[in-house]
Amino acid sequence: MNLKELSAKLNLSQTTVSRALNGYPEVKEETRRRVLDAAERYNYLPNARAKGLATGRSHAIGHVIPISSKHEMVNPIFGDFIAGAGETYSKCGYEMLISVVEDEQAEEAYRSLKRRGVVDGVIVHGPRQDDPRIPLLQDLDLPFVVHGRASGLAPDYSWLDVNNRRSFQRATEFLLDLGHRRIALLNGLEAMDFAARRRAGYELALTERGINPDPGFEISGEMTEAMGYRGALELLDRPMPPTAFLVSSMISALGVRRALEERGLRMGADVSVITHDDALSYFTTGADVPLFTSTRSSVRDAGRQVAQMLIDRISMPDAPPQQVLLEAELMVGRSTGPAPAD
Amino acid sequence: MNLKELSAKLNLSQTTVSRALNGYPEVKEETRRRVLDAAERYNYLPNARAKGLATGRSHAIGHVIPISSKHEMVNPIFGDFIAGAGETYSKCGYEMLISVVEDEQAEEAYRSLKRRGVVDGVIVHGPRQDDPRIPLLQDLDLPFVVHGRASGLAPDYSWLDVNNRRSFQRATEFLLDLGHRRIALLNGLEAMDFAARRRAGYELALTERGINPDPGFEISGEMTEAMGYRGALELLDRPMPPTAFLVSSMISALGVRRALEERGLRMGADVSVITHDDALSYFTTGADVPLFTSTRSSVRDAGRQVAQMLIDRISMPDAPPQQVLLEAELMVGRSTGPAPAD
DNA sequence: CTGAAATCTCAAAGCGTTTTAAAATCTGCC
DNA sequence: GGCAGATTTTAAAACGCTTTGAGATTTCAG
Asked: What is the pTM of this model?
């Protein structure tokens, strides 16, 4: 059933039917009812491609996910973020389009999405410092919102980020208050903007208390379980091991816990651990006291908001870019305690 | 730059240019070269909507992800599966479209995708027994491939599944061979087809060795960390606790480990654990002996294959449905050992 | 009644492709 | 030089919608 057939059935022109369906004012209320009823009855929905061709918009939003061929890593955060964004899209009548591409082809992917008119805008994931995608997208004139930020670039674009510097500063201060002096940082890849900000917060807290950050206590890498495990073991086996770990992801924190267990150390007593917690749905521990003390910020909620920001931006292209900074919550769990006496 | 402008620049008709670009034989080789060069130079790519409208296909594949409003869970497997499928789509020039919808709206989502012509086919995720989506899609005449299977339905549709019954049977036998007699099963939600098959395999192995499956040793639920933790604690606190756990997901297995640790039990010595491992990229433990003994099957690889099956199906609609059954590998790690003497 | 304003409806032109049916151009052979 | 047949190119018609500009019809003040 297409528009032509539907209007024939109703003895109306395609124009009138189209207007009735799209809520234009110049159609009598009774006619509109009749059209809406018939559309419902005949199960009519406008063809998306034809509509898109006529209106020049696709009502779709792209997410380009670069996969490095070296470390076939899918960010564990991805699923929850997508779920959040997807909720918003469903609500607003947008489609979500995901392109999984090799790292080096990301730029070409954006160009292609734009030129072929496949999407009305894109979300930028995992920004690095001076991320080249941002000027590229500005140049392409393709609306976008960044999940995160890219230091080093003019801030004239829309983004939503967690206050990473602040939250890691607070977490470090919390450990310092508990008497810890040797605090290790297991961070994400240095190139990622969020990792740099977290490190800055960590180092700031230390220097403000007169402690010189020890580069040997800072490890960064892909945030896997194994990275947490190996990183922790390596540091624990030093002559002067850390008494506390600040970890950038829940998954790596699980690796740290495994390392502690293996060395016969009790988490929260012998060694303290704070992790960043993206509130992933499959890691929620229910109502009781959480296992890990953490800086907590729901990535799903971020997805919801980022999607909404982009939709707003598409519908009002001339509005100034919007920036949102979320504060992470410090949740005290059972993985932290006073520093053991030396 | 559109086709009209491009052909004007070349002093050719749109037809010729279109044919040259799409590899039709009735165009002189020299002309084709000229066209291809110009397309490259002027950065021309055909508008996807217009092309779709003309050809009647969207070159997009839909994934409907139902989110239950009760337990806002995103399957942790999702990310890796999508990454695998996305690789195939990129290679074959398809777009991937994801719809996140409330559980009850899944049916309407499929109908809408079909009627609006948004996708050429869909992947069905997480099938249940007698899953109503399968007859629905057959009825809608929308090509689909199921990741998993739905027992109870005529098998005249395409699917790719892991041999869940067999792999859990083997895992159970492995534990029996190690002398375990009280083996608990921490399974996924009973309604899920894969969970039923795993249970069948587990019970089959037990009965074949003359052991009556104890329903009290079977727990099923959403496969979170907390579920593994609580389930294990509950069973461990019985007068006759299990000496081994068979767990349906890596994440829940981490919860089991936490429970063991809390009760002062050594995994692999006091209590054995086998988990199913979907080879999620962020849980790979590198080259060393894996922490968990597991039944292993890469869900990412499944994604790649399922996507290819669907693309094949779309291009050859009259070919008979295809079925693929993958065997999981039993990988022995450090979480299993001989049953302790009573 | 009349004529202007307000309301409703319509035919037709676009959106950027593919594809059909037909026309133009070439090739080789008598 | 002319003609059949093959090769290459073309104009125009879809595809299914929105939107423009204009034509009907109704309403109502004067």
From this structure: 0.94
* List of chain B residues whose C-beta atoms are within 8 Å of the C-beta of residue A222: 282
CB contact under 8 A, B100 and A116: no
Within a domain: A9? yes
Nucleotide whose C1' lies closest to the alpha carbon of residue A3: D16
Tell me the percentage of chain B whose pLDDT exceeds 70: 97
Rounded to 10°, the helix B250-262/B225-236 angle is 40
A153 with A135: CB under 8 angstroms? yes
Number of domains present in the structure of chain B: 3
CA separation for the pair B219, B198 (Å, rounded): 12
In sequence order, what are the beta bridge partners of B124?
B146
- Look up residue B168 and give its two tokens: 């859990």
Q: Is A12 (CB) below 7 Å from strand D?
A: no
Residue window 58-97, chain B: list those with CB within 8 Å of chain A. Answer: 58, 60, 65, 67, 72-76, 78-80, 82-83, 85-87, 89-90, 95-97
For A70, left (φ over 0), alpha (ψ -120 to 50), or beta?
A: alpha
* DSSP single-letter state for residue B139: H
Residue B72 falls within a domain, yes or no?
yes
Task: Check residue B70 and give its pLDDT.
Answer: 64
CATH number at residue B315: 3.40.50.2300
- CA distances to A88, A250, B45, B123, B132 from B127, rounded to whole Å, are 25, 29, 38, 11, 9
The C1' atom of D11 and the CA atom of B13 lie apart, in whole Å, by 9
Crossing angle between the packed helical segments A164-177 and A193-208, to the nearest 10 degrees: 40
**Domain containing residue B306:** 60-162+298-326
Ramachandran quadrant class, A244 (left: phi over 0; alpha: psi -120 to 50; beta: rest)? beta
Report the alpha-carbon distance of residue B144 to residue B98 in Å, rounded: 14
A340 part of a folded domain:
no
Strand D nucleotides with an atom less than 7 Å from a protein beta carbon:
7-12, 14-21
Share of chain B above pLDDT 90, in %: 82
pLDDT at B119: 98
Six token digits for residue B210: 């003359």
* Mean pLDDT calculated for residue range A26-53: 92
State which of B20, B37, B55 marks the end of a domain.
B55
Per-residue pLDDT band at A286 (split at 50, 70, 90): low
The one-letter amino acid at A331: M
CATH number assigned to the domain comprising residue A24: 1.10.260.40
Residue A20: other Cβ atoms inside 10 A: 24
